[in-house]
Write a structure and sequence with these properties.
- The chain is globular, with a radius of gyration of 25 Å.
- It folds into 3 domains: 126 residues, NIF3 (NGG1p interacting factor 3)-like (Udp-n-acetylmuramoylalanyl-d-glutamate--2,6- Diaminopimelate Ligase, Chain: A, domain 1, 3-Layer(aba) Sandwich), CATH 3.40.1390; 114 residues, NIF3 (NGG1p interacting factor 3)-like (Udp-n-acetylmuramoylalanyl-d-glutamate--2,6- Diaminopimelate Ligase, Chain: A, domain 1); 99 residues, Alpha-Beta Plaits (2-Layer Sandwich).
- The longest helix is centred in the last third of the chain and has 22 residues.
- It is of the alpha/beta class and 371 residues long.
- Helix 5 packs across helix 11 and helix 6 packs antiparallel against helix 7.
Length: 371
C-alpha cells in the first residue's frame, strides 16, 4: 500500500512526461478519492472489456498507454457509453495515469520492447530524434528561511527532474544588493537606503512543458515584491536515443518470410498470420535496414523513405501509403495497432513491476491479460 503521489512519481520518473509530444495529453487524467493505493492495473486502453475486469477486481489505479481524455470534454451525456465509463471510474474513486508518446519515445519503451522480444540486439536509433532545446534551468534568489518552501513549490510543479532522478537542485550562499525606492514594499530594508543581504541562489532544472507552471509557482510563494527569476535554455545535442520509432541495421539480414515469422512468434494476432507487402515477390530478398513503430506509423513515412529502409513494421497504414512505400522498394509488414502495442505494453509494465519491487514500493501490479 502506497500513497497515490508516490505511485504517480514512480511512473513519471521511469517515463518522464517531458518526453511526450507537445500536443499529447499525458499524465494523471483522473485523480480518484482513494489516497492509499493497493492495486495498479496496467492496460493498453480503457474499453468495455477492461471495465468488466475493473468491476470484478476493483483496482485503485489504472496505468494506461492510450489517454482516455484525448480531447477536451464538451459534454457529459448519460446516454453516451464513454461518458458513463469515465463517470463510473470517477465515482468509484479510481485514478488514471496515461503515458502515451513519452512511452513510445523513451529508451526502453514500446519500440525497444519490440526489438528485445523479436531477438534483435543491435543498437537502434530513433527515426525521429527528440531535440533537447526544451530543457531549461530556472534560477532564483531567496532568503535562507524561504529556501525549502521555494524548492517544494518548484518540485511540485514539475521541476527538478533529470533522467531517472527527481527533486534535483543546487543552492549556493551569496550576497545581494538593492535599494527600495518610494512606493515599494521591501521584504527587508528601508526606503532609499542601499541594502546588502545574505541570500541563497537556487537552481532548478525544468522542461518546456512544466516551465510556465513552475515559474508561476515560484512567483506565488516568493517573499520578495520583485523576485528575480532567470530562465536559461540548455542547448544540448540530443536526448540520447529518445524519439519516435526505431531504426536498426541487422547484423544478419532476413528474408520477408523469416522476418514475418519472427514478428508473429512475439505478437499475438488471434492466430492470423502477419504477411509482408513486398515491393516484388522475391522470397530470397535480403532485409537488413529495419524501421519499426508500434501503433500508427503514418507520420513517419517521409523519414522511413529518407533513411532508405528495407522494411517498415507498423500499423494503421492506408492502402495508398503502403503502395507509396512499395514504389520506394520498401517492404511493409503490417502489425495491428492494438495487438502490437499491447504486447509491448505488457513487457514494459512487467519491467516497471520489477523496478517497483526493487525500490520497495509495496503495491500489487497486474496487467490486463493476467486477470
Amino acid at each position: 500500500m502506497e500513497k497515490i503521489d508516490t505511485i504517480v512519481d514512480f511512473f513519471n520518473t521511469l517515463c518522464p512526461p517531458a518526453l511526450a509530444s507537445p500536443q499529447d495529453t499525458v499524465g494523471l487524467q483522473i485523480r480518484g478519492r482513494r489516497d492509499e493505493i493497493h492495486t495498479v492495473f496496467g492496460a493498453l486502453e480503457l474499453n468495455p472489456s477492461l471495465w468488466e475486469k475493473i468491476e470484478d477486481h476493483n483496482p485503485d489505479f489504472l496505468y494506461l498507454h492510450h489517454p482516455p481524455l484525448w480531447k477536451p470534454l464538451s459534454c457529459l451525456d448519460y446516454n453516451d457509453p464513454w461518458s458513463n465509463l469515465l463517470l463510473n471510474l470517477y465515482q468509484k474513486g479510481i485514478s488514471v495515469l496515461a503515458h502515451h508518446t513519452n512511452l513510445d519515445a523513451m529508451v526502453g519503451g514500446l519500440a525497444d520492447e519490440w526489438l528485445l522480444h523479436m531477438g534483435f540486439d543491435e543498437k537502434p536509433s530513433p527515426i525521429i530524434a527528440w531535440n533537447a532545446d526544451d530543457t531549461f534551468k530556472v534560477v532564483t534568489f531567496v532568503p535562507h528561511e524561504h529556501l525549502d518552501k521555494i524548492m517544494h513549490a518548484a518540485f511540485s510543479s514539475g521541476g527538478g527532474k533529470i533522467g531517472q532522478y527527481d527533486k534535483c537542485s543546487f543552492s549556493l550562499e551569496g550576497t545581494g544588493t538593492f535599494r527600495p525606492l518610494e512606493g515599494s514594499r521591501p521584504y527587508s530594508g528601508q526606503h532609499n537606503i542601499m541594502e546588502r543581504t545574505s541570500e541563497m541562489r537556487l537552481e532548478i532544472p525544468a522542461n518546456k512543458r512544466d516551465l510556465p507552471l513552475l515559474v508561476e509557482a515560484i512567483k506565488a510563494i516568493h517573499p520578495y515584491e520583485e523576485p528575480v527569476i532567470d530562465v536559461y535554455n540548455l542547448k544540448q545535442t540530443d536526448k540520447g536515443n529518445t524519439g519516435l520509432g526505431r531504426l536498426v541495421h541487422l547484423a544478419h539480414p532476413l528474408t520477408p518470410s523469416e522476418l514475418s515469422q519472427r514478428v508473429h512468434s512475439y505478437i499475438s494476432t488471434a492466430g492470423n498470420p502477419i504477411l509482408p507487402y513486398q515491393p516484388c515477390f522475391e522470397e530470397n530478398m535480403q532485409l537488413d535496414r529495419l524501421v519499426l513503430c508500434p501503433g500508427s506509423g503514418g507520420s513517419l513515412i517521409k523519414e522511413v523513405v529518407k533513411h532508405k529502409a528495407d522494411v517498415f513494421l507498423t500499423g494503421d497504414l492506408s492502402h495508398h501509403q503502403i503502395e507509396a512505400l512499395r514504389f520506394q522498394g520498401i517492404t511493409v509488414i503490417p502489425i495491428p495497432h492494438s495487438d502490437g502495442e499491447r504486447s509491448a505494453m505488457k513487457g514494459v509494465f512487467h519491467r516497471f513491476r520489477q523496478m517497483a519491487h526493487t525500490r520497495g514500493i509495496k503495491i500489487n501490479m497486474v496487467f490486463e491479460d493476467e486477470m
